[in-house]
Design a protein that fits this description.
The protein has 339 residues and is an alpha/beta fold. The protein is built from 14 helices and eleven strands. The strands form four sheets. The protein has a five-stranded parallel beta sheet.
Length: 339
């Protein structure tokens, strides 16, 4: 049963409220999941076991009336286990296509770095192409389609780290940390109480219309220029007076970084109830969009310099567009297109 949103409230706020009946804390992860869902992206999550990553995406699927599947990645997995295969029926003498778990709205790829490269590439192909070819038939995955892949940062034995080109296809990489003591108290308290009944806030048609509305959110050229300068600064830090950082960065962010930063900023602006993006939207997302796209040197690893630390320095060195000027340019109805 779908619960109508309260009058005057943003539908995404209602979705978050419903999910938070089950999830305590993890505000950043939940918001980034919505950003990825609204902007047709995918998300990579890194955190130790037991931090409700599975429950978060499962609860979100329920709130938007979406179908949810979970795949536990293991070293013996083969591509057919996730995309499907052709099965021969002896009685009929014909082959029949059996679709795999990727044919869903929200897919949790749990511990993606435990599967071999063939399986990882099969999943990444689905993420990119939104379709699977089995035999001579091509099958479209349901829409909307979101993949949330998780990585366990503790164990490295028996793992197959994602290559840089594969990691680059994820819109964002979110780091999930332990809850604070007050949040953990509520988590334990809820664990020993009857589970709350979650209800659907949106249906898939409404979600599809919201995705279309996000595409109409205005992004000022000054913000695009800022995103491009950010990406370029990670490749050539000396051009912004940070030449000392060059020894820590082997490869900077690819053009996918600036593209996805703008796509994500539009979705975040929409969630925040605006039809135009602001520098704050961009600044809040930079680390999530860029951190997995920087290839750090061995010197950075030895000096314990993280991608987030480097991005903080780059952000501090670049002038941010004036938000008041951007608001002044946004004096037109949504959907009118840039002037």
């Amino acid at each position: 049963m779908q619960t109508p949103a309260a009058p005057g409230s943003h539908p995404m706020e209602q979705v978050l409220y419903e999910v938070k009946k089950t999830i305590v804390g993890q505000d950043l992860l939940l918001e980034r999941l919505l950003v990825a869902l609204l902007s047709h992206g995918h998300i990579l999550v890194e955190g130790v076991p037991g931090l409700a990553k599975t429950l978060a995406v499962k609860s979100l699927a329920g709130a938007v009336s979406g179908q949810f599947h979970r795949v536990q990645f293991t070293p013996d997995l083969v591509p057919a286990d996730i995309v499907g295969t052709r099965v021969f029926h002896q009685r009929s003498g014909e082959f029949e296509v059996t679709l795999g778990p990727v044919f869903t709205n929200l897919l949790l790829a749990d511990e993606i770095n435990r599967a071999p490269a063939k399986v990882q590439s099969a999943l990444l192909e689905v993420m990119q192409e939104q379709q699977v070819t089995i035999g001579r038939e091509t099958h479209q995955v349901p829409k909307p389609f979101l993949v949330m892949a998780t990585q366990n940062p503790i164990e490295t034995e028996g793992t197959y780290p994602l290559p840089e080109a594969a990691v680059d296809r994820f819109m964002m990489k979110v780091l999930v940390d332990y809850p604070n003591p007050s949040e953990e108290f509520v988590i334990v308290e809820r664990a020993v109480s009857p589970a709350p009944v979650n209800q659907a806030i949106l249906d898939l048609d409404q979600l599809t219309r919201m995705q279309a509305a996000v595409e109409q959110v205005y992004v000022d050229p000054a913000l695009i220029e800022f995103a491009v300068r950010l990406a370029n600064a990670t490749r050539r830090p000396a051009e912004i007076g940070l030449g000392e950082l060059a020894r820590y960065i082997t490869f900077g962010a690819s053009p996918r970084a600036s593209i996805n930063l703008m796509l994500a900023a539009r979705a975040l602006a929409f969630i925040r109830g605006r039809d135009y993006a602001l520098p704050q939207d961009v600044g809040d997302l930079v680390r999530d969009v860029f951190r997995h796209r920087l290839v750090l040197s061995y010197e950075a690893l030895s000096d314990e310099v993280t991608a987030d630390a480097l991005l903080t320095e780059v952000l501090a060195a670049l002038p941010v567009p004036d938000a008041s000027l951007l608001r002044g340019r946004r004096e037109r109805p949504l959907g009118a297109g840039p002037r």
